Structures are given as C-alpha cells and as structure tokens.
Amino acid sequence: MIKEKFVQVDARKGQVLVEAGQKCTEMYFIRSGYLRVFSLANGVETTLWIGNSGSFMTAISSFIFETSNRWTIQAITECQLEVLGRKDHFELLQRCPKWMEFDIVLLSRSFAMLEERMFAHLHSTARERLDLLMQNNPRLFLDVPLQYIASLLGVTPETISRLRKNSP
Amino acid sequence: MIKEKFVQVDARKGQVLVEAGQKCTEMYFIRSGYLRVFSLANGVETTLWIGNSGSFMTAISSFIFETSNRWTIQAITECQLEVLGRKDHFELLQRCPKWMEFDIVLLSRSFAMLEERMFAHLHSTARERLDLLMQNNPRLFLDVPLQYIASLLGVTPETISRLRKNSP
DNA sequence: AGTATTTCTTGATAAATATCAAGTAGTTCT
DNA sequence: AGAACTACTTGATATTTATCAAGAAATACT
B103, A105: Cβ pair inside 8 Å? Predict the structure, then answer.
C-alpha cells in the first residue's frame, strides 16, 4: 500500500526539483545519487543538507504546512528517486498506521541527528567537524564538489583545502 | 483524555530533571520559567536549548528510542511544568489520533526551527545571530545568565559582552 | 545590611578562519 | 584533442572570535 504511492523518477545532474519561493509538494527517497538543499544568504548559496542513497529529503516546513519555501532542492549527480506526493503522504498517514509510525520515527531520528550537528557547531572547530565528516562519510569527498561540503560545514572551500593539507 | 495524562510538577532553580547518561522517560511542557538542555564537551557545558513558557522539551532520542541520554535538562529558574511520561505518550499516540497529529506537527515545526538555526550558523556571524536573538527574544537576556545565551549562540560570554557594547 | 558567591565587563594577546587574488588542475563539450 | 569552463589550491593579509587574567557589578545568603 505504501509502496504503490511512490513513483520512480530520474533526475539529471544539476536538475532542480524544488524551486525556492514555490511550495514543496513532494518528498524524495534517494535510491542512488546525491541531492542537496540550499538557500541564498548574503548573495551566497549556502548548502544545508547533502543526502545520498537511503535518505529521505524534502523541504519539510513547506511540505507539511504548505507554506512557501525558502529552500532549493537540486540533484548534484544523476539520481534515481522515489517520489511521494503531499496528498498521498497525508492519505497514508490517515489510512496506514505503519506509515504514521514510520513518519514519527523518521522525524525523531532526523531531529536528533540535526541536534547533534547543531551541537557540534556550538563547541567544535572547523577542523574537528571536518575530521568527523571525513571519518563518517569519506565517499562524500569523492562524489561531490568541495564547495558544497565546505558550505555544509559552515566554512569556505579555501579553509577545507588548507585543513586537508595540514592534516595530522 | 490528553490533559489527564499530564502531571503538574514544580522545579526549583538549578534542579536537574534529566541526568546525562540515564534514560529520559518524560517530556515537559513549560507553564512558566526556563529550562535548558546542555551537554559537556571538551570540559565545557554547552547549552543546546533554552525553553520558556509554552515550549515542549525532552531529550528526544532517548525519550523515543530508549537509548541512553547525553543531555542534561535543568531548570534555570523556578518552573511550573506539565510532565508526560513515556508510556503515557505512546499510549496517547495509539489511542488518540489528535495527539498523533499534534506530535507530527510538533516534530515538524521543531525540525524546521532547528533547520533555520543551523542555517544561520552556516552563513551568519556571531553579531548577526546575536542581533536576531535580541530582536526575537529580548526577555531572554533579562531572565537567564548571559553565559547560557552565549553557549546557545556558539560564542563565549566575553564576545557577547563586547558585541553588545559596540552595538550600532 | 554585609559578606560570599556568581556573573559580567574590559584589556591584552593569540588563534582560527575569511577574503582577495592568482595560478593549477580537472571536467565537459563539440 | 583542444577550448571553455569549473573546481581546487596556495599565498598574503584582514577580520573575527577565543583565551587568559583581573577587576567591577550584581545576586544570594545569613
């Protein structure tokens, strides 16, 4: 029942799936490839998330509350996606207890992960955050441009470049 | 039905409600006062959240998944709280669709708020973050020690002190 | 009210990171 | 393969923020 609601879609490298300013009416499950979520701040694109296979991504506020959206969702590489529309999501929530349960687990886990990331920013240095990311997700550095990773870590590409060079 | 599950409890200033290392089995609704959530990092207490009246607070990961908990939850001031136990929460989720719906909204809203905060850390300066907080929550600066606010913003108390002085 | 304790401010200095600029390497496209 | 573009690195310098230390102010305690 859940599976039926998902539609398989491919995205080209660079393709924009959700435009900033519009409403986000879909959530994405990434079967393969990388998506990023970014927004313009002081004239610079700041990347908030990079997701790869196995992740769910959406602009949650817009998706749930139908508010207009500040985030752009873009494919960094070619992607195979499973797409779930907003209406189908809410239908599933009502009709399918398993989906409801899953949604709460997904939200809770996502929140806890983001909390950890926030916490890291409150007390650790750029170097520490970089080391941790390289350790947890070395593939990322091979697969996506450094500038996006820099942005994700809240530093400039130059800084990453230097930190990487003077690594212990 | 929902209301019956909440138990009214008072907390003294400084009282620890949830200890780091143990499981968090309760969620709190703050009727009055301030709670903070913090954890030790490199020998320093880093405050991740400060909540005041109208907020829900818990150590979500531990509360939902019964994992052991890294956060300490402490009353910064005297507090009037409404407490909901883990078992009651899950009972409500099953029996009371309204609570389920509310929980999803609460989680989504919390996630979106945290996303905004994370985003601010990725692109804005300490001064910008401070100005925003002073604008959105001026009461905070009157009610809780500066050191906690500093930690929340990811800077030292000295920096806040100086920024505040040289404000435009 | 007066002492003890905690919190806040200020100064001097150091460390981390950003910015700007230029060059090198890598990729994409035809 | 070669041109055009994008991504990465390095250097010089500036800015931001942290650290350490000491004193001032505020608050709590009896």
Answer: no
pTM of model > 0.85: yes
* CB B33, CB B75: distance < 8 Å: yes
The pLDDT value recorded for residue B168 is 56
> CB-CB: which of A47, A104, A112 is closest to B61?
A112
Look at residue B124 and give its three-state secondary structure.
coil
Span A2-26, pLDDT tens digits:
999 999 999 999 999 999 999 999 9
CB atoms B46 and A123 under 8 Å: yes
Q: Which of B64, B110, B122 sits opposite A48 (nearest CB)?
A: B122
Q: Nucleotides of chain D within 7 Å of a protein C-beta? A: 6-12, 16-21
Tell the residue number behind the tokens 């879609």, with chain if given: A9
Strands (E), chain A: 7-11, 16-18, 26-32, 35-41, 44-51, 56-57, 72-75, 79-85
CA B117 to centroid of chain Cα atoms: 13
